[in-house]
Every structure is written in C-alpha cells, then in structure tokens.
Amino acid sequence: MKRNQFKIYFLTIASVIGLSACTNLEIEATDSIISEGFQGLADPSSAIDGLYSSLGGQYGDQANFFALQEVTTDAALVPTRGTDWGDNGLWRVLHNHSWNGEHAFIGTVWNQFNGNQLGASRVLDSRSNPSAQNIGDASFIRAYSMWVILDNYGQVPFRDTSLPSSSLPEVLTGQAAVDFILADLDQAIANLPTVAAGSGATLNRASKAAARYLKAKVLLNKHIYLGGSPDTGDMNQVIALVDQIADDGFALQAGFFDLFRDPATTGGNTETIWSLSALATGNRIFNGLHYNSTAISGGGWNGFSTLAEYYDLYEGDPNSNRADVNGNPLDGQEERRGGVPSAGKPYTGEPGTTDNGGLEDGSNVGFGYLIGQQYALDGTPLTDRAGAPLTFKRDFVDGTGASSFINNDETTGIRVMKYNPRYGGGFAGHEVVFRYADAHLMKAEAMLRSGGDPTAMVNELRVLRGATPLGSVGAQELIDERGRELYQEVWRRNDLIRFGQFTRDWLFKESSEIGNANRNLFPIPPAQLLANPNLVQNPGY
C-alpha cells in the first residue's frame, strides 16, 4: 500500500479484540474459566452479539479472508505502482500462487474463524443456558466458521468445551467434518426464525433461509472435501433447499447495483439473504479508486484491480464502458458491467436525506468496471498526480511498455466498483454475504451436475441483467455466469476450485504453479502444527 505500509481499514473494535487470542483455541482466564475448565457464559446473548460483530469486521476487511478468496484468483490483483502496494510482496504472492505458511493473511484467517468456532461452542455449552435463538445463531456461526476452515485448509480443529482447557483439539477432516457442519446447520434451521425477504436490518442475523443457503453450499462442494464426483442425492438436496429459500419470498430482483445499497434507504430487496452491518463497505470502494477521485474526501487508495480477461467475460466494447450520469450503460454492455459517466451527479439535498434520487454524496464515480478516462463532477477530465490523464487501462505495464506486476504507473488496471460511494461514502452498514442470485445459480449447477439442463435458469438471470440469452449452458458457461454475477462477493476461489480451474494459467501466475493442485488448500500455519500434533501439514508445503 502507499509508502509500503499495510493497513486494515474499517474493522470494528470487536473484530480487532474479540477473538484475536484464539490462535491455539485455548480458553483464557478471562473467559469465565476456573481451574477445572470452562463453566459457562453468564450472558450468551451478548456473546452472540460479539460474534456477529466480529464476523462483520472479518468479512468487511480488504485483507485476510477477502484477499484469500479473491486476490488468489483471476478476479482481483494488487499490482505494485511505484512504491505503493509493495508490502514486501504480500499481495503479489497471493495472485501468483507463491505463498507459504508464514503469510500473515493465512495465519489470521485460521485464527479468526477458529476463534469464532470456539466462541460459538461456548454459547452452545449447556452450562451457558442458551435460549433457542442463541442455539440457532451459535449453530449457524459455528457451521459457517468451520466450513470456512474446511474449505480453505482441509482440516478443522475442534475443541470440546466440556474437556479441560489443556486438552488438544480434535481434528476433523473429510466426512467427519462435513457431517459435523451439516448437523450444526440442521440445528440452526430448527431454531432460527423464518424471516421474509426484504425485511431489512433483521437480515443482519441468520435465519432459516441463511442456514439453508449455507447447507446447500456445503452439499454443492461436498465432493471436493470427500473426493470423487458430485452425488445426485446431494444435488437434489441443493435444489430442494433453494426452493425452500424461495418459499420465504427470496427471489431475483432487477436493478443490479441497488442490491448493494443499504436496504434502509431502498425499502429492502428480495435478494439479500444474509448481510453484515460492519460499516466496512469502504474497503470495497476506496482500494480501487485513484487518489484524485474527487467524489470522496481524501480520494482512494489506488490498489485493487481486475484482469482484462475477467472484464472480457461481459458483453460490450472491450475498450469503452461509458454510462450516463445515473450509471446506466451507453456502450451496449450488460448492466452488471456498469459504466463510467462523463459527468457526475451533484448532491442537492440536506445531509442525511435522500433528495436527488437517493444520492447522499455528490459523485463522479461510475458503477461496475471503471476503464478509460475518469471525470470530475462537472465533466472535466481528471488527471493523475503527475498531471497525465487519469485513464484506467486494461494492461499492467512498466515504463517501457512491458507487462509487469511491479513498476506500474498510477493508472494501470481496470477498477471495480460494486458498492458505490454516492450511497453513503463507504460507511453504509450493509455488506451482502448470502444472496439469492447465488442460490439461483447453485440450483442451476445442481441441475447440471445431476444430469439436468440449467439453460433456462441461467437465461432467466441473464435477461434480468440485460444480457443476451445463451443457446446452451454447460460447465464453462456456468462458471462464467457466476463470475459475472458474483464478482467481489468473496466466492471466486471456491467457485474456481469446484469447477477445476483454480490451478489454470492467468496473468502473472508463476509458471511453476500452473496445474499445482496443492494450491487448492492453504498451508496450516507452522505455529499451529507445533501447538497441536493432531494437525498434519497439507501436501506441498
């Protein structure tokens, strides 16, 4: 990052202090412990509040979980521009697949989500006297956190809170891990409330629909964790679970970029199944914008970009992506690709109001993928810090024009803007985690993997997003559609692994890592191997 300083922005206080000491899943003296071990929580409801708050910070962060799921793929990269975003290669090694067990993000994600798991287990301990709602929330959070660890590391240490704190955590893998997670999700479904679509802030907590979504996600990926091919029975369960989610009123909705606005200002939507209110959408906004992006006080951080090959998944002129003042596309591109307005839409209302069509900040920033000349509110072309035109470019090149991951200037790389600063300036408390369009595509995929034809389902979504219907849909069309719909929503790594494409070649990947299936899992942090001999280092590390 700028001046080679790595910073984590917009983390909630709870995410910083909540469970950061859980590296070894040890129970500390400050957690209602006496010499013989854990004795229960005095206030399990407050513990649940803290867990959701921690998840908000963990999910909203630009580093750690987000970076491991997106920067390791073709969807995102963080080039070094001069001295900015060098960080001793911290970001580059993720994208080129040359990370090792000492990488800070790999250790932090292990600590955070294993810490969530332990916190949820404390709530679920009978000595904490949890209510049915507590049981539902804690079962969901534990299942989600254990699934993240299984998906990223392939083995899950589990501490039984009834055992002495000196006991080593049991390690769950394969079928045992999947069964444990699914059992927790069944318990969550039994105890969580039914929440209708469009209920706004209530979707910041889990519901039956959220637990069913996660169960469908686990079943869709089950063959990755166990080996072999997808099971038809599992695929049928995925289809049934998505149908049950739809029964609660969740459905596809038009107006793509409105889905990523705070539902309190839009009246809600039928797509958001679970969101988090971490006030951290700024990490999805600022890290791609240039320092001179005038819509925001202080400008952006000029870091994250996407690959031209990812941008080219969309319909439209590959070199032009214009939009009108409201962000409506002008160059034949589909809605999800967005566009860059040649003039901004000035703010005319009072602070905190929704005058001017819901606009809260005057903004010249476009929607979706930002390429080409960028403009000020009055239509004046912006410049970079050296006075050259601020034109975001498809390619990453050094001063000689050669392709380069380092020595880029300030303007290389197409930028991504799914959450827009004109709606709250990056502090809107609504970041989508589970969305119905994903469930819709999971059902289509389950149909494909069980011998059905998903073409009609995929085209239903494409037509809604202003894209041309496809003649037929196979595996490649489906992974491409997931990429077009779900960019920046922290699913790309998981999707590429399930479709067998995480090890393929892309720009700047190390040639020695192409085809290396060992990269489908991250290494167990070395300190954890020393702390718990039940863990075994993953192959290739």
Automatic annotation (TrEMBL):
It holds the Pfam family SusD_RagB. It is found in: Cell outer membrane. Residues 271-541 form the RagB/SusD domain. InterPro entries: SusD_RagB_dom, TPR-like_helical_dom_sf. Keywords: Cell outer membrane, Membrane, Signal. Transmembrane segments: none annotated. The keyword Signal applies. One of its GO terms (cellular component) is cell outer membrane. Residues 320-359 are annotated as: Disordered. Belongs to the SusD family. This is RagB/SusD family nutrient uptake outer membrane protein. It comes from Muriicola jejuensis.
